[in-house]
Amino acid sequence: MRRVQTPITILLAILLAALPLAACNNSKPQPTADQPANVSEYPLLDGPNVTPDSDAATWLTGELMACDDVLYVYKDFADGANRYTQKSWMGDDSADVPEMDEASQGYGGSTGIKATINLARHTWGGYYFQTGILAAGSTQPQNDFGSVDGGEDLTGATRLTFYARGAEGGEVVQFFVGGLGIDGAARAQYADSTNQISSGFITLSDQWQRYEIALDGADLSRIAGGFGWVAANNANPSRVEVAFYLDEIRFEFAPASSRRTPILLASYEPAAPGTDAGVINNFAYTYDNAVTLIALARAGQTERALQIADALVYCIDNDRYFSDGRLRNAYINGDVRSFNGWLSPRGQQFARLPGFWDLDDKQWYEDYYAVSTSTGNCAWAILALCEAYRVAPEHPEYLQSAKRLGDFVLTLATSSGAGGFTAGFEGWEGEQVQVGYKSTEHNIDLVAAYRQLAELSDGQQAAAYMEASEQALTFVLAMYDAKQGCFYTGTGDDGVTPNTDVLPLDCQTWAVLALGDSLPASSAQAVMAYAQQNMATSDGLGYDFNTDQDGVWYEGTAQAALAWQALGDEESYQAILNYLNQSTHSDGSITAANHDGTTTGFTVSGLDIPWLYDQRTHIGATAWLSLAQQSENPFTPANNP
Predict the structure, then answer these.
(1) Residue 632 belongs to some domain of the structure
(2) Fewest CB within 10 angstroms: 322, 429, 539, 540, which?
(3) Element (H, E) at 87
(4) pLDDT value at residue 40
(5) Which letter, b or e, does each residue of 570-605 get, where b requires 16 or more Cβ atoms within 10 Å of its Cβ?
(6) Percentage of the residues of the chain whose pLDDT score is greater than 70
(7) pLDDT tens for residues 468-479?
(8) Which domain covers residue 139, as residue numbers?
């Protein structure tokens, strides 16, 4: 299943670990993305932005707009937007080096940085925030001072801004940009393109204040040293220790230099680091982003939808381990592309995967589910890329990537039982295995995905995709229980025996939305009657994920609204939509559930712990709300019931 929240205590360490906390010269930041020299920027599309009719689409659009015209040195702890994650100590000596706490209190967002230096121990010292390098085959990123062409091209940036405050007030600190690899007249081969640009000495207040370093006229074509600070005892003569806080460190660009970078949105609003919920702060689930792409395209937000499409194409083409066109279940949020100077084990650029830094054992971890590949998530990416191609046919790469992904999923077809497709691959790289069970939900997705691929293809290729759609349909219909009027979740590990332990809502609503005339009208009505009786909560308007009816799953509730509308029941559709609209935040977003701990009946993939939904803002739920507000069925092309 999808959208798994994996706890902090039972994950396994995996490749490309990196430390978001700063330490000394061998510090280990998380892998983050840059713009490799062989990856061109995508120009913004012509034409004015369209204001969506959907409040939910407006919020989703705003989440992508927040990435415009900025490049973060530090946004939040372990955030995928952080682009200068290697930290290098500089000071009078390398003994007793102080660490920075990057999960401290901040000015905005969920966290900030606390920096401390003992001036009785060090006459001067500070930290350099760098891009660093990752050699092919290495699992340990390293600092680099100009031996590799690894800097960011920041051309067009007009200033670096940041927020800072002293722990007490009166602390004197100097901040700077650039200068990496430059020592007087000596320059490393790939030194920064500009000498160090300094803020001068700043006396900090005990209140947050915004500061900026002007960059006008500077050559910013290669900047590997994105930010730094230094404190010295001669500037702080009365202090034994200088402690201060930093946050929202970012380069700001002139609007004319705007570029459409490939972006995946974090699925959930950030939670406190060190908590179970905080584990997935930087997780951009493939499914959530695919649905978001479709919702934005239907709302007329073509530019924004294509940012996600570009990211999906990149991920298909640049897996760090596989070359068969698959997608992982999740990637890191933000620009998914790897840094200049950061190479996969295959010696190539790569799509970054999410993870978290364990504050207790000081280790970077990845997630078993995130690194795996689920068939249904691939199907949704196919639907999203077909959508992108329809709204931007001048970009054939969207359809080409959808077909490549579809061809990968064809390898998961099986003739056992009622046929259909197995649920994908699970496990760590080098140990992944194809699972035996089949998911009704996944095969519903494939019915629609292969239909769309067939419509956009011709000849033998179209015939092969239509045959695949029929294979998936045969399995789905075999999972229908005519006596109860519902679809089972799928099979057990043998691929044959129906799994009747949990009956999920989305198997019911998606069957109505995706199968169309392939599902008899009487069965479609029976499916929604079953859902209403067994999954609707006490008010009859909110729907739970499963049949225990212990909470409202807003994503599924939006699906139910659209399913009722597909059956011609406008009254139920409007009543549920009104309920959803009353449950949103003022900004148009909505949470995953109406309370923390809403059960699904399933366990987390690979772990024997419950899979739960929390009352936490969720792009997947907001995207489905947007589709419901627009009366749009994501399983069919726009304006095609």
Answers:
(1) no
(2) 539
(3) strand 86-91
(4) 30
(5) eebbebbbebbeebbeeebbbbbbbeeebbbbbebb
(6) 91
(7) 999 999 999 999
(8) 69-257
d(CA 59, CA 265): 12
Alpha carbon distances (Å) from 315 to 15, 156, 320, 330, 339? 17, 27, 9, 10, 14
Summarize pLDDT for 185-205 with one digit per residue, the tens. Answer: 899 999 999 999 999 999 999
Please tell me whether the overall predicted TM-score, pTM, comes out greater than 0.90 for this model: yes
Query: What pLDDT score does 255 carry?
Result: 81
Q: Give the DSSP per-residue string, 442-453.
A: HHHHHHHHHHHH
How many CB atoms neighbour CB 1 within 10 A? 23
- What pLDDT shows up at residue 52? 77
Does the pLDDT at position 68 exceed 80? yes
Which CATH number fits the domain that encloses residue 225? 2.60.120.260
| DSSP letters spanning 453-510 | HHHT--HHHHHHHHHHHHHHHHHHHHTEETTTTEE--EE-TTSSSEE-S---HHHHHH
Secondary structure, 3-state, 296-362? HHHCCCHHHHHHHHHHHHHHHHCCCCCCCCCCCCEEECEECECCCCECCCCCCCCECCCCEEECCCC
* Lookup: tokens for 450: 């292969």
* E strand spans, 156-240: 157-166, 172-177, 182-183, 186-187, 197-203, 209-214, 225-232
Short-list 539, 613, 546, CA closest to 580: 539
| Residues 6 or more apart in contact with residue 481 via CB below 8 angstroms | 487, 488
DSSP letter at 117? E
Cβ 17 vs Cβ 285: under 8 Å: no
Copy the structure tokens of residue 428.
């760590």
CA distances from 622 to 5, 325, 523 (A): 18, 28, 29
Q: Is residue 146 part of a domain?
A: yes
Question: How is residue 239 written in tokens?
Answer: 């202090």
CA-to-CA dists, residue 156 to 252, 305, 624, angstroms:
8, 24, 37
User: What whole-number distance in Å separates Cα of residue 259 and Cα of residue 251?
Assistant: 14
Alpha-carbon span 388 to 42, nearest angstrom: 15
The half-sphere exposure of 538 on its side-chain side, counting CA atoms within 13 A, is 2
Please indicate, yes or no, if residue 522 is contained in any of the structural domains. Answer: no
Mean pLDDT for 493-517 is: 96
Neighbouring C-alpha atoms within 13 Å toward the C-beta of 541: 14
Which token pair is 443? 């095969």
Instruction: Give the residue among 359, 383, 377 at the shortest CA–CA distance from 267.
Output: 377
What amino acid occupies position 207?
Answer: Q
Count of domains forming the chain: 1
Confidence of residue 258 (pLDDT cuts 50, 70, 90): low
225 pLDDT more than 50: yes
Q: What is the average pLDDT score of the chain?
A: 90
> Is residue 75 domain-resident?
yes
Residue corresponding to tokens 């993939």: 605
pLDDT at 606: 67
What b/e sequence results for 166-175 when a residue is b if at least 16 CB atoms lie within 10 Å of its CB, and e otherwise?
Answer: bbeeebbbbb
